[in-house]
Write a structure and sequence with these properties.
With 209 residues, the protein is mainly α. Helices cover 87% and strands 0% of the residues. It contains 6 helices and no strands. The chain has helices at residues 3-33, 39-89, 94-116, 121-166, 173-192, 198-207. It is rod-shaped.
């Protein structure tokens, strides 16, 4: 149902409820007029009927508000997903895409926490702190992954250059030495970044000695 249909349905339910309350009140009054119940009984039953009527009105209002809130939440979720897809669609770089996905997920989690704990500031504060810490940890993990990839790519590039110069009869001694030094440095950096294992690190050092 659309929001308009929900509101229209609510209006119809109100009319039906008020008619029901009116009819019950008229029936009770007729019982008194026909002397089927005493004045005391009528007053007691009428008071109880008014309480019941108010409870029914409140229940109907709460039902309507819940339906509206559910519909609005569904709309906001759909809108958020569309915006997210639009944002991500324009990102070509894989690393930027991964970082943006983390950011969007974090924003969605914060928004959900605000909705879930809006009546409890202390719990909301705790949840926000936990989500921020989780986001920071995810960012650190992503940064570490990128550092490993960069270090490994740099090592592979320097190894390729060094191998090429080693097999090039026209390469100067100075050029070969510089390429070996660059490879040694890249090997150290790759090991420090945990992009390669200790065995790989040792094997690479052995090749350059």
């Amino acid at each position: 149902n659309t929001l308009a249909q929900i509101k229209d349905g609510y209006a119809k339910e109100i009319v039906a409820l008020e008619d029901k309350i009116k009819n019950e009140s008229a029936s009770l009054k007729k019982q008194f007029e026909d002397k089927k119940i005493t004045r005391s009984q009528y007053d007691q039953l009428d008071a109880a009927a008014q309480i019941s009527a108010d409870l029914q009105r409140d229940a109907l209002t709460q039902k309507h508000n819940q339906e509206v809130a559910t519909k609005e939440a569904a709309f906001q979720k759909e809108l958020s997903e569309i915006k997210q897809k639009t944002q991500l669609a324009g990102i070509v770089d894989q690393r930027q895409l991964e970082a943006k996905q983390l950011e969007i997920t974090h924003e969605q989690q914060i928004a959900k926490a605000i909705a879930d704990y809006k009546g409890d500031a202390d719990k909301l504060f705790q949840i926000k702190q936990a989500l921020d810490a989780q986001y920071k940890a995810a960012q650190d993990k992503l940064d570490e992954k990128n550092r490993k990839e960069d270090a490994k790519k740099k090592l592979e590039a320097t190894q390729k250059t060094a191998d090429g110069l080693a097999n090039d009869p026209n390469a100067t001694f100075k050029a070969r030495l510089a390429s070996l030094e660059a490879e040694t440095k890249a090997n150290d950096e790759a090991y420090k970044a945990r992009a390669i294992s200790e065995d790989q690190y040792i094997e690479n050092k052995r090749k350059n000695t």
